[in-house]
Specification:
By secondary structure, the chain is an alpha+beta fold. The chain has two domains: about 80 residues; about 150 residues, no CATH class. It contains four helices and 15 strands. Strands 4, 5, 11, 12, 13, 14 and 15 form a seven-stranded mixed β-sheet that branches. The protein has a six-stranded antiparallel β-sheet with strand order 1-10-9-8-7-6, with no helix packed on it. Strand 2 and strand 3 form a beta hairpin. Helix 1 packs antiparallel against helix 2. The relative contact order is 0.11.
Length: about 270
């Protein structure tokens, strides 16, 4: 007979068999899944509403940290598997951010932001010039890509803005009323909208608008790319459409300090 107690009654690691290793790995996997769910819940509660990009980055970093431990310490796989996982996680994070987009700021009825839609550019008086690819600038013609050239549709007029900088679209008696800025943040509009009595109705600064509640009756917004404002009589006084990242359409009634009126309509 053989003595089974030669090792003090303890079984060696070899005697434990593969089932124990499988159980240990299963416990590690369950622990990793639970930790990931806890991290996802925490970032959704505390980070998601503030910054989608940072929230996705935090979740991706958590997954990569867990994968590093599981792949290298538990399963003892080649480091190439870890690099492949990190690469796929990074691609998935970027793709998710492209679909979801950044966190949008909260708005009220009288305060918000204009953000570009993805609508087609409507026909304008500038189409012939854009079709040849050259527009006047600084006393000479410059080459432009039509799809990437900023265009402001003010009533039935078109204002091309092919280079960085600021352009005044409308001024009354020397006072700037409507203008645009083409810079690192994209196409931005600024405007000062007064009524005939000279009272401020709306102010737009770099696509952020403020409306004077006492001077309007209501507003209409199809989405964050549009803003239509009505005066207490129910007449439309401002209609702004951010059609796409390179096109703004601005309509409405604009008054100078002396009561001079400029009406911008589509026709």
């Amino acid at each position: 007979m053989t003595d089974d107690t030669s090792n003090g009654g303890k079984k060696s690691d070899h005697d434990k068999g593969p089932n124990n290793n499988f159980d240990a790995r299963l416990y590690h996997l369950i622990f990793g899944v639970l930790l990931t769910l806890i991290a996802a819940g925490a970032e959704f509660k505390f980070l998601w509403s503030e910054a989608h990009g940072f929230s996705l980055l935090f979740l991706a970093a958590t997954l990569c940290a867990l994968a590093t431990y599981e792949i290298l310490a538990v399963y003892r796989l080649h480091v190439g598997w870890l690099l492949a996982f990190i690469f796929l996680t990074a691609l998935s994070t970027l793709y998710a951010y492209q679909i979801i987009g950044p966190a949008l700021p909260e708005e009220t009825e009288t305060h918000g932001w204009l953000m570009p839609a993805n609508a087609a550019r409507p026909p304008s008086a500038c189409d012939d010039m854009l079709s040849i690819g050259y527009v006047p600038r600084g006393g000479h013609m410059i080459y432009v890509k039509p799809a990437d050239t900023d265009l402001i549709l003010f009533g039935n007029l078109g204002v091309l803005h092919p280079t960085p900088g600021q352009v005044l679209v409308l001024s009354i008696e020397g006072a700037p009323i409507v203008g645009i800025v083409n810079g690192q943040q994209g196409l931005l509009v600024f405007a000062e909208i007064h009524n005939k009595a000279g009272l401020l109705v709306a102010r737009i600064q770099m696509n952020e608008f403020h409306l004077m509640q006492s001077q309007i009756s209501y507003t209409e917004r199809r989405d964050r790319s549009s803003l239509v404002v009505y005066d207490p009589k129910g007449d439309e006084v401002l209609n702004v459409q951010f059609l796409n990242p390179h096109t703004f359409q601005i309509l409405g009634k604009f008054y100078g300090a002396d009561g001079t009126e400029v009406i911008a309509t589509p026709k």
